[in-house]
Amino acid sequence: MIDRSLEAVEKRDAMALRTISADANSEAATEGHRELILVALVDYALSKVLSKIHYQQVDDTFYAKIIKNFKDAKAGPKTETLKNLEAIEDFVMKLDESEGNFQDNVMDKARIKKAANLYEKGLSLRRAADLTGADPAQVLEYVGGSKIHEFSGKGQNATRLKTAREVFSS
Amino acid sequence: MRNRIICDSSSLISLSMNCMLPLIVELSEVADFIITKTVRDEIIDKPKRMGQHMMAPLYFTALVKCGVLKVEEADEKKVAGILDLSNSMYYARHHALTIIQRGEAEALALASEGGTLLIDERTLRFMIETPKDLMSLLQFRMHRDVTMNEEKRKLFQKYCENISIIRSSEIVAVAYEKGILGKYFEGERREVLEACLYSLKSRGCSLSMDDIDDYLRMLG
Fold first, then answer.
1. CB A164 to CB B215 under 8 A?
2. Interface test mutation site (partner B, options A160, A163, A165, A166, max chain B beta carbons within 10 A)
3. Contact B101 A120 (CB under 8 A)
4. Is A103 on the interface with B (CB under 8 A)?
5. N or C terminus of chain A: which is more exposed, having fewer CB within 10 Å?
6. Of the candidates B132, B196, B125, which has an alpha carbon nearest to the alpha carbon of residue B167?
7. Does domain B1-167 have CATH number 3.40.50.620?
8. Domain residue spans of chain B
């Protein structure tokens, strides 16, 4: 994943970064590894940086730093991989502080989006929020605007209503 | 003896985001709303540390202080058992899938001692009520073969035998029938009910459009 991310940043390929982010998130749903989550988050955030008009003035020194950290992350060992991916996370957050249009950071948006995706895949809300560092309230709000809950199981409403009536009787 | 509702943070967050916490204040007249220590941390301490959504933790603090939300400790042995079983029940590529966390396990442990679980998020609800549906969901969404350990499922189900589940939508339904909704939301009765259900759905309660239609039909 890090190889692919490096190549995508070198080519400034936002679509490729989105794809890698989705792949890393899928792997993370099974494996739960921090480095996969970090790749999913930073690749998604970088794809946003590359595709939004108000980030177009971001200069090459920003990308040079990202590329260096991806290279160092690739070289390992694992502790260094995590450290370098976290450094990329910091760079994106700092960039957003100076260039972003909204109070919510592009990294925070990535966390919400990826947590909602993990929840969609079947992890619990807490597990998804914990893995990504997202705020559960914001994840629930995001999920509410999606069709994720259309697959919610069927035929239990009458039973639930009966239960609630009994619980709150008197 | 008063009925006990063990609250998961997902439902409390949904109700809070929809300005519906007064409904549980009213309903606490007839039943006890219980939260575990981890849920308290999730709805009060953690958001405060993160510096976000500050209004909700302040409201929740008041609800704990005045006894509307009662904090109880779950049996540690049960919590450990639930965590172990639930997170070794489903497998993908020979990996046990970690599905739930401590907060959910604590709520389940307390509810297993008698009580109704109030939970808006979908995953734990599926795991308790229709574990095979969760397997299908995992399979479908992860695009890979997922297997379920039957032995673990049976052991896990023992914790769930006496548990009934409601969501915040059922809180709204009962509040509607008891005439509580009208105290807080002005409008034609049915219009208020419909607005409340759609609002819950749009802010994270695991309700489908079919569920909403069902409720509107059942509640006339």
1. no
2. A160
3. no
4. no
5. C
6. B125
7. no
8. 1-167
Task: Write the single-letter amino acid at B44.
Answer: I
Which residues of chain A make contact with B218, given a CB cutoff of 8 A?
157-158, 161
Pairing of strands B31-36, B69-72: parallel
pTM value is 0.89
* Structure-token pair, residue A6: 């490096």
Among residues B39, B45, B97, which one has the least CA distance to residue B73? B39
pLDDT digit string (tens) for chain B, length 220 residues: 789 999 999 999 999 999 999 999 999 999 999 999 999 999 998 877 776 657 888 899 999 999 999 999 999 999 999 999 999 999 988 888 888 889 999 999 999 998 899 999 888 888 998 888 888 888 888 888 989 999 999 999 998 988 999 999 999 999 999 999 989 999 998 899 999 999 998 887 888 888 899 899 898 7
Per-residue tokens: B25: 């204040």
Q: Sign of the C-alpha dihedral, residues B170, B176, B180, B185?
A: positive
Q: How far is B160 from chain A (nearest CA, A)?
A: 15
Residues in chain A: 170
Q: Does residue A56 contact residue A71 with C-beta atoms inside 8 Å?
A: no
